[in-house]
Amino acid sequence: MTTESATSRAESPASPQNHALPENHASLIVQGEDRTGIVAAVSTVLSGHGANIVSLDQYSDDPQGGAFYQRTVFSLADLKAVLPTIERDLEAELAEGFALDFTLRDMSIPKRVAIFASKEDHCLLDLLWRHRRGQLPVTVSMVVSNHTDTADEVRSFGIPFVHVPTGEMGKPAAEAEHLRLLRGNVDFVVLARYMRILSGEFIASLGVPIINIHHSFLPAFIGAAPYAKAKERGVKLVGATAHYVTEDLDEGPIIEQDVVRVTHADAVADIRRRGADVERTVLSRAVRWHSEDRVVRTDNSTIVFA
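Structure (tokenized):
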């Protein structure tokens, strides 16, 4: 294993340079059984503290006792000092009064992400470029790879690169090293075409969301050489799917999907190039939406307030 420390190439993991993180803004995600008065209850608690609601999105799959979801962004001067009191009041009003679950987060603190990659670099470098341009409100804690192909390019962004040679170490030892690196240091993980299957034990032990990008509309064309398989079938669309990782391979809740058109005249290389373009776009959207608390997981699906 080769570890590039944060101090040897950069003084600290890279934070977004140009993204204006919303100072004194917080996000509130509420979910549970729908009933009369939820929106009013949220508004009452927030207005009672002098907060200004900047945006409010909600969805109910059935107004008569169905599932309810709400994302609220509000601003308040001296938010950090007041947030614990707001959380206490929301607990009393929503959790105790309505039996609702909620999460509350200071949006001026970017989520910490580790990016896993292998040899293919298009998704990895796109995320790092968007982050440097201020388009992703995250702190990139590290890039972890089972190959060293992208090491120099990653370090050029001022981000620590860690090489964990999974094939040489064996899967159990490599995953133990991954856990040592990640625990307490990241809020989520992105698999940017990381070509290794994570064990269920690792997913459970890590305890943070993991986002994966898949080169098709799942479950089509899984396995090796997907674009060659697509060419053989004469497909007219190729796509990509970003989803959360679960123990069931490539069957986790879907965050985002998109497609591009291809024709019979496109060679496999053309299809692969267009597929890589849509993979980059879909993954960056999923990472941004997750970072901004726009994605709510529900069973094996998602509600996305995009």
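Residues 152 and 161 are 9 Å apart (CA to CA). The two ends are 39 Å apart (CA to CA).
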